[in-house]
Design brief:
Layout: E1 3-8, H1 14-27, E2 36-40, H2 45-62, E3 68-73, E4 92-97, E5 102-106, E6 119-125, H3 135-148, E7 158-159, E8 171-176, E9 182-187, H4 188-191, E10 200-205, E11 208-214, E12 226-234, E13 239-245, H5 257-260, E14 269-271
Length: 272
Amino acid sequence: MKKLIVVADWVADSLTCQEFRTAVEGFVQNPDKLVISYVASTPRTIHTGFLINQIVEIEERFGHPLQTVIFQNTDPRLASHEREIEAKGAPFFIIRLKSGIILCGPNAGYDFSFIKSRIEEVFVYPGLDKGTQFRSRDLYARVCSHLMDELIDELNLEETSIGLIPTIKGFYIGHIDNFGNIKTTITKENLKGRYEFGDELLVKINKVQKKVKYVASLFGGRVGQPVIYPGSSGERDNPYLEISVWRHFDQEDWVTGSKLFQDPLPGTAIEI
């Protein structure tokens, strides 16, 4: 049985996680061998897409791609302004990556945009875009269990175009970690030829502008100095940059990258 990694905006709720797990246990062939892990996202598809990309990156680098299913559920319905019949949302996609990893979930916003270049096949599962308030438990759990049991060929899937997954443009906050470090979608390659280590950059997030120093690591400047540097996410040779402040945690008043920009949210645009 394949393992399942869940990335969703409801993962912070332990009751929801247990309901979903119970539903999966009811469908898999060998519930005693069930392996599920959870990664909490927010109702912002850029955030979910960034998390999925990082999970895929590490699974392909260190894990067992052929034994991995990733299920995401972030569908904020940003295009809706009136009532939706039967809580209708985005179509349910099942994606096979070139490495063999299987992904599934609603194709909403940028959920799958970051892994677009890794995709081999894309399918849509008709009829899973409406019908219940808690689709993860009531509909998606069954599909996840079949994918874990390697029954993808028995599902009623229709092949579709990778072009239905939008391409992301511009720079954004991809994630903010527990230390307050801002993980951006800016890569080291994006700054090549424009800036060198030691240069100062003017960074704007929301309406807050700050000068940050471009350095080789978080500890490449001095304590208390805002910095931008190649972080721990993204490709090994072309990582995403992080924005933060090297601080000593024994100080009474310390500032993180997040606090520096007044606690922005994942998915917020970044200007340089």
